[in-house]
Amino acid sequence: MPDRVIWTVAFNTTNAGPNPIGPAPCVATVEGCTYDSLNLGADTFAGAPYVGVDIDPNGAFLDSNQPGFYCDGGAGGTGFLRLDTDTTSCWDTNKPLGKITALVE
After folding, report:
1. Contact 85/59 with Cβ under 8 angstroms?
2. Higher pLDDT residue, 101 or 40?
3. Which domain holds residue 48?
4. Among 29-33, 51-55, 59-63, 69-73, whose mean pLDDT is lowest?
5. Is 103 helix (H, G, I), strand (E, B) or coil?
6. Residues 6+ apart with CB under 8 A from 47
7. Cβ–Cβ contacts within 10 Å for residue 85, how many?
8. How many structural domains comprise the chain?
9. Residue 29 and residue 9 in one domain
10. 62 and 82 share a domain?
11. 65, 33: one domain
């Protein structure tokens, strides 16, 4: 593994994602398309196990078309993966949890 890693999560919904699925019959139902609500949450838990060093505790990498989702209000651009960081600690309590397992062959 390299010294630094950026890990991301991406999935497609009816209208969003790298390759949106497009119109589907479930859109017309009361339940809607359940995969349209697969929101990714992030929260920082005291005492959560971790390895490594977060080199920018005030930042996170984000790809969204919604300017309001960014700490800088989208000033650095939207619609592509970029570092969203701010001196106001915008992301310091919203770190996603994950596990990366490297397979050595």
Report:
1. yes
2. 101
3. 43-105
4. 51-55
5. coil
6. none
7. 19
8. 2
9. yes
10. yes
11. no
